[in-house]
Amino acid sequence: MMMMSVAQKLNKSVYFDILGVVIVFISAYFSGFLFNDLTTTIIGNQWWAKYVPFGLISALSSSLSLMSTRLVGKNKNSGNVIGVISTVVSGTIDYLLGNMGAIFTYPISFVVNWLSVHQWKNYQGKINHLVNKWLLAILVVGAFVVGFGLNYLAFRGQVNAIFYLASLTFSLSLTANVLNVLKIKEEWGFWIIYNFAQLAKAIVQGNFANVGKYIYYLFNGGFAFVVWQDQEQ
Fold first, then answer.
1. 143 burial class (0-12, 13-18, 19+ CB within 10 angstroms)?
2. What is the extent of the structural domain holding 70?
3. Cβ pair 19, 216 in contact under 8 A
């Protein structure tokens, strides 16, 4: 009972929202990433690249994604709307940081997030119950086949650490995003696993603005799962 009470309070808390944004910017600042320009990406030493505040843009993008997740956890469809916008920005940043698969994977995420916006309108605040576990198994297998397949094409057969991490994180996020369309609590279990993998990918890519964010997400996913489990019908 106490755990449920704590989870509900943190899930609704505006202060916890603010904490997440603060963590993103503090992590980016102390890593030295916050003030990086575009020359630190695959763009290289183009004359104009040094005038683009890539680190700040990345931190703002991370904050946008964070608020999307927080609002979805609060059962607000506005989180899905923000998620559509965040997908475009995050995909661009991921590509610039060396994830060649982003050009294939993020458009799929965009479509799935867009579907969530429209489906949630039909649920009228209801958290649904998973009625078919075989459907979940098929979704997971299908997401991993699509995720690894698209990234293999994007990386042109070059199998390395970024390839595996990009494929794993996309497969997990695709599964979770599809479950979000269905609006069932199981999506949060996949988000927790996803955040572990994203934390590893952020470290490998040097995208330190995301490190603190995904640590925060791990806790947030746990709170949201507990709250949604209590509210499912």
1. buried
2. 2-231
3. yes
Domain count for the chain: 1
For the stretch 107-120, pLDDT in tens is 999 999 999 999 99
pLDDT tens string 70-103: 999 999 999 999 999 999 999 998 888 877 778 8
Query: Can you tell me the distance from the alpha carbon of 66 to that of 214, in angstroms, rounded to the nearest whole number?
Result: 9
Please, which residues have CB within 8 angstroms of residue 12's CB and are 6 or more apart in sequence?
74
Long-range pairs of 199-204 with CB within 8 A, sequence gap ≥ 24? 200/165, 201/162, 201/165, 201/166, 201/169, 204/161, 204/162, 204/165
Q: What is the pTM of this model?
A: 0.87
List of residues 6+ apart from 143 with CB closer than 8 A: 171, 172, 174, 175, 178
Residues in the chain: 233
Q: Average per-residue pLDDT in the chain?
A: 88
Token pair in block for residue 229: 């489990």
User: CA–CA separation, 189 vs 69, rounded Å?
Assistant: 14
Q: How many CA atoms lie within 13 A of 158 on its CB side?
A: 10
By C-alpha distance, which of 118, 133, 57 is closest to 89? 57
CA–CA dist 44, 223 (Å, integer): 41
Q: Tokens 């990406």 label which residue?
A: 41
Higher local confidence (pLDDT), 121 or 38 = 121
How many other CB atoms are there within 10 angstroms of residue 136's CB atom?
Answer: 17
